[in-house]
C-alpha cells in the first residue's frame, strides 16, 4: 500500500501516511487512487471527525507527482493524471471535516499542493516547501498556483514559482501558511486534533465552507453567508447544547445535529 493508515491516534481521528519513502513519497497513480478512496471513506464515516496526513520515512511529506510517470510524451495519460489530481485535491479541500497535515521534510509540487488543500499545516524545522515544477519545464496543475497566490500574495508566490525557491517551515509560518513549527510533530498533531474534537462538527463544516467560499465572494455577500450560517447553527441541537453546557459549567456533548 502506498498510503497506509496508522493505528488510531485517538477516537475520531484518522491518520494516513504517504508511504513510498524510497521515492520521497512521490504521488504515483496508485497512490492517488488510494488517497481518493481514503478521502471518500473519511467523508462517509460520521465517526471520523479529523483527518491527519503525513509522510513516511522522515525525509519527505510528498516530493510531488511521480516524475517517472511523465516521461515519454504520454499526453493522454498526463492530462488524465492532472485532471484526476485536481479532482482529488478539490475533494480534499471540500471535505467537511478538519484536515491536519504534518510536514517533516520535502513538501514539493503536488505535495505542497496537497498541503494547501488542508486546514491546519504543521511543520518540522527541516521542512522545505515549494512549487519547483518550472525546473522541469512545467507548471503546477493541481490548483497550487492559485491556492498559493491567494494564501501568500503575488510576491511570495512568485519567489516560490519563478525562482523555484524552497521555503523553510519557519518562512511558511511567517507567511501565515503554517500553524506551528516544531520538531515534536506527534505532540503538535495530538494537541491540534484534540482541539478540533472540541468544536461542534456542524459549526466546523460550515466555517470551513465559509473560509473557502466566503473569501472568493464580495465582502457584503460573504457577510450574508456568514449570518445565514450562524442563524442556522443557533437553532441546531448542538448550538443549544453548547450554550447550555457553558452556562451549566460542563463539557458540551455535541451530536452533529
Ligand atoms: N518523482 C519521482 N521520483 C522522485 C521524486 C518525484 N517527484 N522526488 C524524488 N524522487 C526519487 C528520486 O528519483 C530518488 O530515486 P532513486 O533513489 O531511485 O534515484 C529518490 O526519490 C530520492 O531522491 P533524491 O533526488 O536522490 O534525493 P535528494 O535528497 O538528493 O533530493 C529533492 C531531494 C526533493 C530535492 C529531489 O528529489 C527533487 O528535486 N525531487 C523532485 C521534486 C519536484 O520537482 N517535484 C515536482 C514534481 S512535478
Keywords:
257 residues; alpha/beta; 14% strand; binds coenzyme A; 2-enoyl-CoA Hydratase, Chain A, domain 1; 2 domains; 6-stranded mixed sheet; 4-stranded mixed sheet
Helices, by number, come to 10
Mean pLDDT: 97
- Judging by the overall fold, what is the CATH architecture of the largest domain? Alpha-Beta Complex
Strand content: 5-15%
C-alpha end-to-end distance = 36 Å
Indicate the percent of residues in helices: 40-55%
Bound ligands: coenzyme A
Largest beta sheet, briefly?
Answer: 6 strands, mixed
Question: Low-confidence parts lasting 5 or more residues at pLDDT below 50?
Answer: none
What is the helix/strand order?
EEHEEHEEHEEHHEHEHHHH
Shape type: globular
Annotation, overall tally of beta strands: 10
Report strand order across the widest sheet.
Answer: 1-2-3-5-7-10
Going by CATH, the homologous superfamily of the largest domain would be 2-enoyl-CoA Hydratase, Chain A, domain 1
Per the CATH scheme, the topology name of the largest domain is: 2-enoyl-CoA Hydratase, Chain A, domain 1
- Helix/strand/pairing category: alpha/beta
Number of domains: 2
